[in-house]
Amino acid sequence: MSELKINHRLIMTPGPTMVDPRVSQAMSNQILGQFDPDFTQIMNDNMAMIRKSFHTKNQWAFPIDGTSRAGNEAIIGSIVKPGDSVLVPVFGRFGDLFVELAQRAGGRVTTMTADWGTVFDQDQIISEIKRLKPKVVAIVHGETSTGRLQPIDRLGKAIHEYGGFLVVDAVASYMGTPVEVDRWELDAVVGGAQKCLSIPSGITPITFNDRFAAEINQRKRVEQGVRTALDQSGSQFITSNYLDLTQLQDYWSPRRLNHHTEATVADYGLHEGLRLALHEGLPARFNRHLRVHQALNAGLTAMGLTIYHQGDHEMPMVTCVQIPDKLDGDAFRQSLLEQFGVEISSSFGSLQGKIWRIGTMGYSAQKGFILTFIALFGAALLQAGISVDLKAGLDATQAVFERPNAPVDSLVSTL
């Protein structure tokens, strides 16, 4: 077996993203025991920074050891018990994932659908909430399969009128655009590591409020072996052990009840990623993502390409580009990776073979990377026989970056 060798890549996908070297350096530190006071302080620091990142005062803000899907499954599997009514508005692949998770938890799932590439008017969802009065509404905030950002700021209030809970997948939008947990009355939210936070996949920040906690604790069951006489078991206990939020509450609280061996190195990376993001300042970070998105869109348009549904609730960290006619999109992506070291993504479902998805997330959302991408992407298109104006693309991209910086809050307020 030869020594591991990793080729250099410019990763411009909607996840995973390139990792800030400072995160990689933090993750190279010595392993600490999971109950070492030095490490439990890191755990506490991470909880505090997760609260700030979600704009929440929730007590419960901690990471799940697993990918973002584990975070979604932990939330759904803890709140949905067999027979519970669940409403899922679907406008892309990851809405379908919520359907899958809720069905596996035994929920009675009702879906409402919007064409891929569009979003819902919140009034449509609120009308369905009034009709169904579901226990749970599960919705995606940033749908990377279509590049759409779904407005959700009015849904929490609507579902709370009927005693229900709003669960949000903010995996792709987290740390790249505002996710106002308290102001929007979101009950449980899942963030992402390998998207705009730009740390390795495998640890997922989540948060949920006290109301949500009270509901799931009716299903609490502490596992045999660490259970005490004070630990009661609910009649319809959460079926997953590893993704049981009620047991994880005991692990991430002063009780420190043993549940699993915490992924210490991943927590180091999470700590450094959150520290860097909060040091930058969230409004400044969100503005950076939006400016880079605008620069990339301007460059691609000037080259002669078409942005898919441009201006229609675009995510400010994902650009969807229509694949030019008579070009094999997958073959081009393979050539772009092998010959130029640049990775972009295709899409799914009805958009498979129709669009490419380009991510400008976290560490990759920088002027130098975007100009390099435009140059290499344009060169690859020319080599593939597609007529593009590469100079115009570079000039247009550069022009956006040369505009005077807007006040920190002004760009974000347009989202």
UniProtKB/TrEMBL annotation:
InterPro entries: Aminotrans_V_dom (IPR000192), Aminotrans_V_PyrdxlP_BS (IPR020578), PyrdxlP-dep_Trfase (IPR015424), PyrdxlP-dep_Trfase_major (IPR015421), PyrdxlP-dep_Trfase_small (IPR015422), SP_NH2Trfase/AEP_transaminase (IPR024169). GO terms for molecular function: transaminase activity. Its cofactor is pyridoxal 5'-phosphate. Keywords: Aminotransferase, Pyridoxal phosphate, Transferase. Pfam families: Aminotran_5. The keyword Transferase applies. It comes from the Bacteria. The keyword Transferase applies. PROSITE patterns: AA_TRANSFER_CLASS_5. Residues 32-349 form the Aminotransferase class V domain. Belongs to the class-V pyridoxal-phosphate-dependent aminotransferase family. This is Pyridoxal-phosphate-dependent aminotransferase family protein.
